[in-house]
Amino acid sequence: MKIKEIQNDLKKKLKPSRYRHTLGVVETASKLAGRYQYDEKKAELAALLHDCAKYIPDEEKIAMCHENGIPVSDAELRNPSLLHAKCGAVQAEQLYGISDPEILHAIRVHTTGVPDMNLLDKIIFVSDYIEPGRDQAPRLKELRKLAMEDLNQTTCRILEDTVSYLRSRDDQSLDETTLKAWQYYEKLCGGKDRNE
């Protein structure tokens, strides 16, 4: 499928606000790819498809994971919307013909993160959080600046903020993978920012 065809299909499947978010992620991923000497077209394609399964009904997401041998965590069963990343990778491959394992992996982990993410994983993970349309998360201005300087540190801070937010809600929606990713990046980046 050509990019234009994918865009047209996503325009029909995503709510207008979600499609605008997607375009913001594409724009941000392209900038970060340029900054970190990564293939911009690959980054843009992963960004374009990162939320392609966002509006699949929860029961279908769970069924899609089971049908494709994808493990579903307890947190994902409690909050199946998390599964849109894993299902997005399935749809990117099966519906949109994407075979590049890096693109599929970046889509698969963009919600929870994982320890030791590759460059494209981090580009999509960070872009999803800091794209220009986002305005709710803490420290966005700082994170947008930091993303152009240190992708690992940005990833660590996003994970830290995510874990902190989910723990404050105390609704058991904190996925174990997110916790492990945060612990990995906190160790990698030397714990809390010493300048704060």
Summarize the structure.
This protein is mainly α. It contains eleven helices and no strands.
Note down, in words, how this protein is organized.
Helix content is 65%, strand content 0%. It is an all-alpha fold and 196 residues long. Helix 2 runs antiparallel to helix 3, helix 2 (16-35) packs across helix 8 (119-130) and helix 3 crosses helix 8 (119-130). The longest helix has 20 residues, at 16-35.
Looking at this protein, list some descriptive labels.
about 65% helix; 11 helices; globular; about 200 residues; mainly alpha
Give me the count of strands. 0
Secondary-structure element order, N to C: HHHHHHHHHHH
What is the averaged pLDDT score?
Answer: 93
What's the tally of helices? 11
Helix content: 55-70%
Low-confidence spans: none
Q: Kindly report how far apart the N and C termini lie.
A: 47 Å
Q: How many whole angstroms does the radius of gyration measure?
A: 16 Å
Shape: globular
Query: How would you characterize the largest beta sheet?
Result: none
What portion of the residues fall into strands of 2 or more residues? Answer: under 5%
Which structural class do the helices and strands define?
mainly alpha
